Amino acid sequence: MPGRIRIYENIKIPVNQDISSANTTKPYVILNMVQSADGRAAIEGKASMLGTDFDRSVMRTLRSRAHAVMVGGATIRAEKLSLSLDSEDTRPVPRAVILTNTGDLPLESNLVLDHRQDVLVLLPDSAEKSAERHLGRFAETRRVPATESGAIDVASALEIMKSSYAIDILLCEGGPSLNQALLRANLADELFVTVAPVLVGANSSEVPGAFLHDRLGGPRSLRLISSQAVGDELFLRYVVQHLP
User: Fold this and answer.
1) pLDDT digit string, tens, across residues 12-69
2) Torsion angle defined by CA atoms of residues 218, 239, 69 and 231, in that order, rounded to the nearest 10 degrees
3) Which tens digit of pLDDT belongs to each residue from 177-210?
4) Contact 103, 131 (CB under 8 A)
5) Distance (Å, whole) CA 108 – CA 67
6) How many C-beta neighbours within 10 Å does residue 109 have?
7) Number of helices (H) and strands (E), helices first, in the chain?
8) What does CATH list as the number for 26-200+207-240?
9) What is the pLDDT of residue 21?
10) Whether the Cβ atoms of residue 165 and residue 68 lie closer than 8 Å to each other
11) Distance from C-alpha of 25 to C-alpha of 11, rounded to nearest angstrom
12) For the chain, what are the domain ranges?
């Protein structure tokens, strides 16, 4: 099926403007996620168990349009994954960016390293010095300002990505905590959702939802840009309407 049907192959990002006219202080932020039909983000703790090969081909198409792919530390801890493109793919490989509040990242075991890809780990000022030394063996590390709770200030992190690393288009692949932080801070511009044809049926304490259950700082309106069904999967693209 992936060889016959292509989604987002000729996609334009941002949807309505040139990147040169977008926000000058932060990247254009795209959230990409897969969820079950009942809104769960993982099966047995792993998002990869929800997606099909076709969903993964769509994910790599979106990655090829971005300057960086970002995930949170919990996503790295949950399962082994790659943030790159397939080895035979000749498209430019985006930078990998990982946000961690603690520095607890098993990069050596859970991140599939690609010699074509630069890896950047952002830590808050409050993280232990030892974490920075350990992670520096596998990636560039950089300190960013923290919020009062000690978590990374995502707005400051995005400004650093833009100003110091020329990241104009940032693809965020979760998890739910990072998705929520970006939405709460009014920083997400688009949302891509793959609805997988499965019911997980677990309660919120066992399996995370696509977004955490805390309030997002107010309801967010979405504008549907496209929808396409492939087999039993549904692919949706929205523009996130920013709060005033």
Assistant:
1) 898 776 665 556 899 999 999 988 888 887 776 667 677 778 888 889 999 999 999 9
2) 110
3) 899 899 989 999 999 999 998 888 865 455 556 6
4) yes
5) 23
6) 9
7) 6, 9
8) 3.40.430.10
9) 52
10) yes
11) 24
12) 26-200+207-240
